[in-house]
Amino acid sequence: MLVQIQIFGKITMKIGQRILTTTISIVYILMIVILAVSLYLRGLKNLEPVYIINISSEIFGMATGYVIYLCCLFDTQKTGADNINFINMLNMVMLGLFTDGVAWLVNGVPSLRWVNILDNTIYYSVTPIASFLFFKYVLSFLQLGNVNRKLIGLYRFIRITLVIDIIAIYLNIPFGYFFTVHADGIYERSTYTSVSMAYPFLILLTSLVLILLGRKQLQKYRMVVLLLYVFVPLIVAIITVFVYGLSINYSLLMLVMVLMYCVINIEQGRQKAVADRDLDTASNIQESMLPKQFPPFPDRKELDIYAMMRPAKEVGGDFYDYFFVDDDNIALV
Q1: By the number of CB atoms within 10 A of the CB, which of 92, 160, 241, 286 ranks highest?
Q2: What whole-number distance in Å separates Cα of residue 22 and Cα of residue 18?
Q3: Model pTM?
């Protein structure tokens, strides 16, 4: 009965995972289609050139993200917490691209004022969540959180402050201390817009410290990609605080995600090559231990012995041997 329950649980889990991955895939496609169709309906003539550049780069970035997502699903080697955190980060970058694209499309349209407000609220929420997920990814990859109580406490504190930050962002809707959308549909930054970036900045800087502390566990190219994920949003955020109109933060982050995915493939390829080499060595050792000469005793016509071991995988667990212990008795092992 217990075995049946376990099997049923595994089947249910697989079905649930398939439904979830299919749903995410459909949502990705819908977001890309909505942005592309909305850009066409709005009309290129009705948008400023910088808006068109932003939206086009975001559509391209989302298409790239969808390809990465499909690769993560079809690659059976990518499992575990690192892969889950990577996909969650990818989801946030995709949502950041989509909400930013929608913000440029509805800006200046009075009838879509509330769409503009809600969209920008979600957009503001994505940045701290993406920063938190990156921090979680660094903890998981460096395997720091499971052995260090201080880091466990830090993780809990950061998670609590994330909730507080998200609440503060949504309270902006009635109070407008981060941004406002006027009756004419025009988005405008408020006095404390830069304060909304305080949490992501602190989390990324904390992640940077963890990366530097765990640098001995990282190969150079892995460390470079992680540092890019830290510095790209920091630099772009500083620029966009003073320059309104250019929005390339999540487009650049998607490029970093591509590099991160490539680095993961390189690492897994090297690990697989080492594992294959070790398995091949083990297979050769095992094969060398087994008798190969048949018939084994040509001068003993009364005996006819043949044996074979064909493992299901590279290395099996079966061994055999046979030998005479005296003139009249043979041992089979």
Answers
A1: 92
A2: 6
A3: 0.75
